[in-house]
Amino acid sequence: MSKSVKLYQFSRKVHKWSGLILSVFFMFIAVTGLVLVYMIPLGVADELRTGKESSPNQAIPMEKVVSIAVSQGLPGTDSVDDIFRIEYRPSANVYQVRFNNSQGVQIDASTGKVLSTNPDYSTFLITLHDGSFFGNWYRYTILTMTGLALILLSFSGYYMFGFPLYKRLMAKRKTRDSEI
């Protein structure tokens, strides 16, 4: 058996087994990514409200944002340590305060009025999707191996697709050359 045929057969085995094993991770990343893309229509995340129009330099100070968010009486939101992230959205003039327990508060950046206190599971979904939910070991080992395996699967797939085409092209060329 020629080297190219052996390489082709080896490529098929690697492609099949690594694809089968890693398809669990690919599906997990794909499903969480799709839910993130469609989280507002699915009702997983609260739609961004719009605050009173004003310039960003008229926004309330961060201490007040924290104070307002923590004082809403949401479960598990007792102190600044419970806050996962605070985002300022200039297009809507809104602060989005996201807590560690998937609670969310939207605050008008100019008046301090609370616009929404709905649960926001997007933070949970983001941590699932990027692997930080499982810890750094998952992010840097499993996701790195998954990414590298996707590259390997792509190249082995290109090879498995291209090798038969190349062989057919060479056979046609050989036939044509022998007829001349």
Spell out the key features of this protein.
4 strands; 180 residues; single chain
What is the beta-strand fraction? Answer: 5-15%
SSE arrangement, N to C:
HHEEEEHH
Report the radius of gyration as a whole number of Å.
Answer: 26 Å
Largest beta sheet: what is the strand line-up? 1-2-3-4
Count all strands and give the number: 4
Helix content: 40-55%
Separate helix tally = 4
- Shape type: elongated
How does the helix and strand content classify structurally? alpha+beta
| Mean pLDDT level | 84
The main pleated sheet reads as: 4 strands, antiparallel
N-to-C CA distance: 29 Å
Poorly predicted tracts of residues: none
Topology:
Elements: H1 3-37, H2 62-70, E1 83-89, E2 94-99, E3 104-108, E4 114-116, H3 122-130, H4 136-179
Antiparallel strand pairs: 1-2, 2-3, 3-4
Helix pairs in contact: 1-3, 1-4
